[in-house]
Design a protein that fits this description.
Keywords: Repeat. With 268 residues, the chain is mainly alpha-helical. Among the domains are: 137-197, no CATH class; 199-268. The protein is 72% helix and 0% strand. It is built from 17 helices and no strands. The chain is elongated.
Length: 268
């Protein structure tokens, strides 16, 4: 009877305070198998990052009698998605220390965290675990590896992993493209861009901003002109590029023509 009632409550959106009340009932009734579900539902219910919620969920994870890969992976992904990269890696390390076998979601989220904070050692260790766990052919894990190596500037390994991906998606292509752009190899970036079977606004923006940073505004404008869809980042890249080249009047004309200005536009 109590199991059915608690299961029903765990189907609903929960505040942290409600989650704590339900958790008390779970512990009192020795229904600890429901703790992973409680963690998932608590995190799913959080519209934005909450330090209080994250702290509470991590406390549950530490005290669980049986460490659970599902709950731990969900927590790592939640933290990574909300920009708490060091905390996400801390939970991933906790998972590894407890002897849990990571799943693909935990691995990709941890790699994303390493890429964002340029944690080279952590990323290399996770790559080793990817090989050990047999995740080398999982597209979104491979893409996370490409992104990681691109972020730390190892384009040789990034390209090697990229070339091994079967069924590349636009995120895979954008990851390798962004790496070449970031490190100023516009020749390789253009080659990748031309090969892409499908491009989105992120692909176009990468190239426009790359040429703009290189002060090749003629090529930047040509790509900007051809863009099927533009957003504020597209316009800001052109405005910044013209300013860097000392062409203030052109920058002003783009600013005036910009349909939706944001704070970056005004700062630029």
């Amino acid at each position: 009877m109590q199991l059915a009632r608690l299961t029903s409550l765990l189907d609903k959106s929960l505040t942290t305070d409600q989650a704590k009340q339900i958790h008390c009932q779970i512990v009192v009734n020795k229904l600890n198998d429901l703790e992973p579900v409680l963690i998932r539902q608590t995190l799913n219910s959080a519209a934005r990052y909450s330090p209080r919620t994250a702290h509470y969920v991590r406390a549950i994870l530490r005290r669980m009698k049986k460490p659970d890969v599902f709950a731990t992976s969900f927590t790592i992904r939640y933290l990574s998605q909300h920009g708490q990269f060091r905390e996400a890696l801390s939970v991933y390390e906790q998972m590894h220390s407890s002897g849990l076998f990571p799943n693909t979601f935990a691995v990709s989220s941890a790699l994303k965290s390493c890429a964002r904070i340029l944690c080279k050692i952590g990323g290399l260790m996770i790559h080793g675990q990817v090989q050990k766990c047999g995740f080398c052919k999982v597209v979104f894990v491979q893409t996370a590896l490409v992104d990681f190596y691109s972020k730390i500037g190892d384009m040789v390994i990034a390209r090697k992993v990229f070339d091994e991906i079967r069924g590349k998606n636009v995120v895979s292509w954008n990851s390798i493209l962004a790496g070449y752009v970031k490190y100023g190899d516009l020749e390789m970036a253009q080659s990748v861009f031309d090969e892409m079977p499908a491009k989105d606004v992120i692909s176009w923006n990468s190239m426009v901003s790359g040429y703009a940073r290189a002060k090749d505004m003629e090529q930047a404008y040509e790509l900007f002109r051809r863009m099927p869809e533009r957003n504020s980042a597209s316009w800001n890249a052109m405005i910044t590029g013209y300013i860097e080249c000392g062409k203030i009047e052109l920058a002003r004309s783009f600013f005036d023509a910009m349909p939706d200005r944001n704070n970056v536009s005004y700062i630029t």
